[in-house]
Design goal:
By secondary structure, the chain is of the alpha+beta class. It is 31% helix and 32% strand. It is globular.
């Protein structure tokens, strides 16, 4: 049996824009796959973990909570191989977000990429 493609291993899903609005391309809802889906899913899961913190000013304690939540979400996701330290949490310019998280991720497929997640 052939090895799954990256898209098959990491998933395919609907593309979203800022504030989780559907991304529309040529009149159709856009689709993403592979590593992009993984990043989107990690961001969404982390947002769900931190829902009660949404809109609070970013303090050093909250930055640590963001890192912990991201690690928890990543540890539950079988597509994640590992997160390469450091995870950096900075204040977001986006009025709807609390923080931007910069990190390097290695997927279970071996693919490695840089992410900036808005949470």
């Amino acid at each position: 049996m052939p090895e799954p493609t990256t898209a098959e291993a990491l998933g395919t899903g609907i593309a979203f824009e800022d504030l989780w609005d559907f991304h529309v391309q040529a009149g159709s809802i856009g689709v993403i796959d592979g590593f992009d889906v993984l990043g989107r899913d990690l961001a969404f899961g982390t947002i769900q973990e931190l829902d009660e913190k949404r809109g609070q000013p970013l303090t050093p304690n909250l930055a640590e909570e963001v890192k912990i939540a991201l690690r928890r979400v990543a540890n539950r996701d079988g597509r994640v191989g590992r997160i390469v330290p450091p995870i950096e949490v900075t204040e977001s310019d986006d009025q709807e977000a609390t923080a931007e998280v910069s990190m390097t991720l290695v997927a279970n497929t071996g693919e490695r990429g840089e992410y900036v997640l808005t949470v």
